[in-house]
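#struct-help
A.M.: can someone run this one for me? Single chain, 472 residues.
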Amino acid sequence: MVQLRTIFAALMLMVLVTALAFYNTSAINQIGTQLLTRLEKDETNREQSSIRTLLMKNVGESVINKAENHQRQRQNSLSGFNQNASRDIKDIQKNQQNGFAQLSQEAFPDKCPQRRNITLEDIEKKHIPDDLYNLAPEVFDQFPKTFLEGYSNPCWVQGGEQIRCLPKLFLAGVAKCGTTDLYLKVASHPHIIHAKEKEPSWWTRNRYDRKQGEHKPVGSFFGYLHEFDKLANKMRNHQDTDAEVQKLITVDGSPSTFWDNVFWRKYVSPECTKGPTYVIADVIRAILPKTKIIAIFRNPTDRLYSDYMFTGGRARTPQTFHEHVLKSTASFDSCLESGGNLRSCIYKNFNGQHGHVGHDHLVMLMKGLYSVHAREWLYAFPREQLMFIRFEDWYSKCKQILPEIYSFLELDSLMSTQIDKICAKKNPTKKKNSKGPMLNATRTILNKFYQVSRQELAQVTADMNFLWDDWT
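D.P.: on it. Structure tokens below:
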């Protein structure tokens, strides 16, 4: 074993010497980290001494010291993150409402308006908090006073004869968590009518001018309503019996609805410097109090790597991913050390493009902090209107979970043969990663980074499977 490890070190030395020849500091740090990590894994001091002696003879003590310092800095950074994160969540909630109140007290200054749920009556009487109204004025100004009675889906008559509808279901989550596969299978129920697009992304993106962050006419509320014309036309034409039409619902499958509140700074009180009082979840709760939300989550470490590789070209490798992760985790760590908590550090510098803390555009850490995003929805909606699913369970237990989803949506049960057929459908967007697996060092960093959020998600959902102990 000593000989094999010595050979390994010798091979790494060849690469290290090449990096030295070109004065590539990044490469020196990376290779040095790998060497020192390997040294740490060796089982005996004699083996460590054998490899270290070989390194000393070939590259000199200064390079070894530099690599050791680099490794210590990373370890200290991770240790610092864990300490700050643990302090941040030290008093985790005893129940979801009290827990969110505790976090809100930390996140908002005293001058920031207090968050509260509003009713349809509040909307009708224009008793809407400014910070909530400013998030979606076109919605609150044009929203109907009443919905058609007796129908499962929220629809209304506009102008005497035109039927308009909004979705009864939001299929949300985060990119690369299986949202497309979930949508295709769930929407295979005969009583679910597809929208024009699976992902209108209207609530969080397409109603804004992305450069200015202002509401735009192209993304109008009525433009969004046209996404659901298929259901509206079906209701108007009575192509089915009245009883069947009353069972129909439609769905918005935009993952970004769950987590993206990118333009919050433009629409909240100036006093709210650490995060918004209201988010998109509050707007949807205000106008659609009976709607249901299904969110699917994947092990955040694997999700991040999949997203990075899926959206990139040949230049993206496990090594470049590692470099971006180091940069992003250091940024988030700095925010926590300066007194922020998980929520405030997500919203800090959330400026409408790529200024999120822990977000260097290519590696978006904040998407995987599921617990913070889940809290927003758990505060806005009753727990019984939200369903949380693990990506890993969905792919292995579709035949068990799909009937549970239909029951959650109060849809007619399907025969087992129908469920089998639906679960056998293939996801056309699934793409294999040809660049190889994530580096073990990167996985270790990310598992530690997401540990606190995983623990909190397990608690707020009362589902210990969200610890992902079986996948880390």
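A.M.: thanks! The longest strand covers residues 292-297.
D.P.: also worth noting: The first helix runs from residue 2 to 21.
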